[in-house]
Amino acid sequence: MIIRSIAALALISLSTLSNQASAATSAAPTRLANAECDVPAYRNSWQDDELQGNVKLAVLVDAQGNVKDTKVISSSGHVALDRASLHASTACKFKPATSGAEPVWAQVQYNWVLN
Predict the structure, then answer these.
(1) Helix (H) or strand (E) holding 35
(2) Residue 81 burial by CB count (10 A; 0-12/13-18/19+): exposed, middle or buried?
(3) Along the 115 residues of the chain, how does pLDDT read in single tens digits?
(4) Which of 24, 37, 57, 113 is 20 to 30 Å from 65 at the Cα level?
(5) Distances in Å between the alpha carbon of 24 and those of 40, 70, 85, 87?
(6) Helix, strand, coil percentages, rounded to 5, for the chain
């Protein structure tokens, strides 16, 4: 019997996304330098189907460092992994803004890899 494990990693992009609603791009790299994101749960049934892939998300971060909205930028090709990534990203906590109170869009990427 071969036993496999799954690694789901959250990578925080320090660059903001270009968006007309995002005005505070100059303060964003300092503000988003530190973030903590939950590692999504990987279900055993997904392992049987050998689901893996990368999910790139856009997250809207407010001045307190909380995620207010999430969107899939690039899908893993598996709805289950995309949904798990979206759910986990809502719990990400970014360093609070040091200046400016405008929400900023940033990127979070989850890499789902069978080991």
Answers:
(1) strand 35-36
(2) buried
(3) 344 444 555 454 444 454 333 333 333 444 465 678 877 878 888 888 888 999 999 999 888 889 999 999 999 999 999 999 999 999 988 887 666 778 888 888 888 887 7
(4) 113
(5) 29, 18, 26, 26
(6) 15, 40, 45
CA–CA separation, 74 vs 55, rounded Å? 6
Distance CA 10, CA 32 (A): 14
> Which tokens in the block code for residue 96?
């609070």
Both tokens assigned to 98: 């040091």
Q: Tokens 């909205």 label which residue?
A: 69
Six-digit token string for 114: 């069978």
